[in-house]
Amino acid sequence: MKIGFIGLGIMGRPMASHLKAAGHEVFIPERASLTQELRDAMTVLPDAAAVAEAAEVVILMLPDTPDVQAVLFGPKGIEPALRKGQLVIDMSSISPTETKGFAERVGRKGCDYLDAPVSGGEVGAKQASLTIMVGGPEAAFQRALPLFQAMGKNITLVGESNGAGQTCKVANQIVVALTIEAVAEALVFASKAGADPAKVRQALMGGLATSRILELHGERMIKRTFDPGFRIRLHQKDLNLALQSAKDLGMALPHTASAQQLFSACVAEGHADLDHSAMVHALENLAAHKV
Ligand code: NAD
Prior knowledge:
Blueprint lengths: L1 E5 L5 H10 L3 E5 L6 H6 L1 E3 L2 H7 L2 E4 L4 H9 L13 E4 L5 H12 L4 E4 L2 E2 L1 H6 L3 E6 L2 H14 E8 L4 H29 L4 H8 L7 H12 L8 H18 L4 H15 L11 H8 L4
Parallel strand pairs: 1-2, 1-4, 2-3, 4-5, 5-6, 8-9
Antiparallel strand pairs: 7-8
Helix pairs in contact: 8-10, 8-11, 8-12, 8-13, 9-10, 11-12
The structure holds nicotinamide-adenine-dinucleotide (NAD).
The site of nicotinamide-adenine-dinucleotide (NAD) has 26 residues, from helix 4, strand 7 and helix 6.
């Protein structure tokens, strides 16, 4: 297929590379930050609109809701270039509510829209083992399935209404934030009590408390490797979506709110662009002890 890929950051770069490796033609928009490797592998076009003109399927992997809005409908956006029969797939993690509006507007151009955010992080993107949570019409899902299979493993059509994928992703981010908090709290506790945190992590990995987050993020907390990965500022964006949606629904998310406050404490220390495992800093400050 002819695929346009817009948003070539930590996640987008390996995802677009897998599509290319699967035999698709991949068009990307010019951007100063493009690596030479990407320039050599893909077809670089002047802007997003030119990419939409060249492609059958346009994939977005952008940071936040306003970025998706700008690329779709902004002054240099793709909307005027869209034509009947094209498929737009937004794989960014953004607002479920705004997603419905974006899908309607793209639908008025005769195009299908899928929201298809992912989980699995940079490692999952590189290994093409992402979990992909999709909202949108079944027929569009079937059309996109070979592309999803080139980038991921656990692929679920969560619902046929747009926004269903994004809602699922918000739920995912609640679990991830609270698990990072639990792992960080446990390691700070064990270390302050005099146990070797590396041994504690190793022991817990054999029992009921095991998780990929204990494995990956626990290791980062112990080795102090906080290069992103997934930036704290992006996880804050996702928890804001959770807290705003909860407010709209008239319900409480007490531990999501406290995890968000711990991320805010990290941001106050200048850590917004560290990996989200750096949440451990906030708990270390409260305990007056470093893991
Ligand atoms: P990133 O900041 O590394 O990459 C975003 C890319 O989009 C950058 O290269 C930026 O230059 C580009 N971009 C921004 N505005 C643009 C525009 N107008 N036109 C073209 N390109 C533009 O972010 P990321 O970590 O790759 O995350 C992307 C999305 O995936 C986010 O919504 C994030 O929440 C989600 N996500 C990230 C991870 C992770 O572990 N990093 C995991 C799952 C989901």
